[in-house]
Amino acid sequence: MLENPKRYTITAALPYTNGPIHIGHLAGVYVPSDIYTRYLRLQGKDVAFICGSDEHGVAISMKARKEGITPQEVIDKYDGIIRQSFKDFGISFDNYSRTSAKIHHDTASEFFKKLYDAGKFIEETTEQLYDEQANQFLADRFVTGTCPKCGNEEAYGDQCEKCGTSLNATDLINPKSTITGSKPVLKSTKHWFLPLNEYDAFLREWVLEGHKNDWKPNVYGQVKSWVEGGLEPRAVTRDLDWGIDVPVAGAEGKKLYVWFDAPIGYISSTKEWAAREGKDWEPYWKDAETKLVHFIGKDNIVFHCVIFPAMLKAEGSYILPDNVPANEFLNLEGNKLSTSKNWAVWLHEYLQDFPEKQDALRYALTANAPETKDNDFTWKDFQARNNNELAAIFGNFINRVVVLTNKYYEGVVPTPNEFTEVDEQTLAELKAYPAVIASSIERYRFREALGELMNVARLGNKYLADEEPWKMVKENPERVKTQMYVALQIASALAILAEPFLPFTSAKLTKILNIELNNWNLDFSQWNVTKPGHQIGQAEILFAQIEDTEIQKQLDKLEASKQANKIANMKADPAKETITFEDFAKVDLRIGTIIEAEKMPKANKLLVLKVDTGIDVRTIVSGIAEHFTPEEVIGKKVTVLVNLAPRALRGVESEGMLLLTNTPEGKLVFVNPDADGVSNGAIIG
Fold first, then answer.
1. What mean pLDDT is predicted for residues 311-320?
2. What is the DSSP string of 611-649?
3. What is the pTM of this model?
């Protein structure tokens, strides 16, 4: 671990532009990386916070096919949504680039060419799946089939999402092209591979020995498992029609594999930033005094801790990451987040539904961050954290301090009198918090750090509750001056300490207190920013209450997604045993009208109906009472099986059966004729 680095390069995983940003991305990568970067800036550190859109690979091509547009249209659409969402949410990147940019194509090509010229790759001809109808090789995600491990019939060519096994497309049983639905054939093709096995000793020394004490257990454990499982050569090129051309002779029609070009996107984005700012990019990637930190989700650990470091080692001039504090996954209302199933809280939609509540979401995601295990986001928890913590603790303290200062002193910070032991203890405790919070942030424990920030607000609330200046003001107004001075010091500290976590709140608070956002000064010598005689502004609501109706709207939206997924994935029951025409001819189906209806006594599910079948009026007992009231069904046209043998139900003889079916939501609906002019007794056949 690098002590006292000269500069920091902070990277956040490049979001894939096949969909918008959702809360899983935010909790796993972008909120923690933004907290860390904002904290470093408050300390006056030299920081480059780097990200960009990942715009190559199979997922883009698949999305383009699905939407009937070009890959370029896909990436332009989602890059725009993602870029604006990050900006509106306050993720403070120094540069947000695109892997479709020329600077990235050039950087990735140069990187590949340097390794190629140095003989770092293996060239092999292998057999890959080929779709003869589409006349193209099939990338992993364009193939589905049966998983050889668990038997899942919908496994992809790179991974079975049911059992989690990593696969090659050629491992699948009964493979099928997702492009044409045809069975692919094997065809020879030439590709280049990075021989990861040659970097075994390097990875064991660098990670397994060098970082066993400072990397998160989930990260270290996954790397250890991969390395000890045996490293194999990994393809760096693919037969694709979208991506960066392989820059060597004999590689026509081939592209750089997306996992190879995407991490180089950090480097090209840094180059883009440095050129714009008039800086030299190389120290941020090649100076040993630079601390490089990758913020990623756990699905990217292998790429950032094994493959990309092997690439950097092979190139020879780059530094390696000091830490890769990957988070686990965030679930939503008990289910795995899914872009394809629309089971997500999309950032751009949240910003529309909850205007000016960026910090409420930042707070909820940090307080429930999946730092050591998968966690679950629920809308009720989000509401409770906003109302019961942000509003009731943080907002309440600030409001009382500002209101009382304006009420007693017209907004002017009073000159304190002699400090009591309680005052001195409170100020001493306050002065300890910057170092406590900093320690948690430095160790990537952002949930813990946020808890300590809230403890500062709790300290302020307790001080006011114990001292009760609103009671003291009549009997000892001089004492109240000291009390309000101490409370104002806590408020000003909160304005600064909150900035990494709650930047919009910090900006509001510094405006209310009429102070500059001071540096994170650990010795507290310059934190006395609200000095006696300083004029503060009027109170504002920092955290508005979130109402039940707002939460219900979000729950209804998720329920609609759930039902839409049911409909999309609904499979019809298999056909019953084949019958002859003579068998069917025995069935007598007629059109009828329900003319009377009542509930069966002591039976929740049964209605007793009188049905005019056109040939008679008969009694039919039907188990539909949980779906229809008697009033709803009177006068309804129905389809009736009239030659069913009578059957006694709870003492009432039922003389037929109505035809109904279920919707995907489980609701019963009548199978009946909608056409006008169909008379009772009409035969169906």
1. 97
2. EE-SS-EEEEEES-TTT--HHHHTT-EEEEETTSPPEEE
3. 0.85
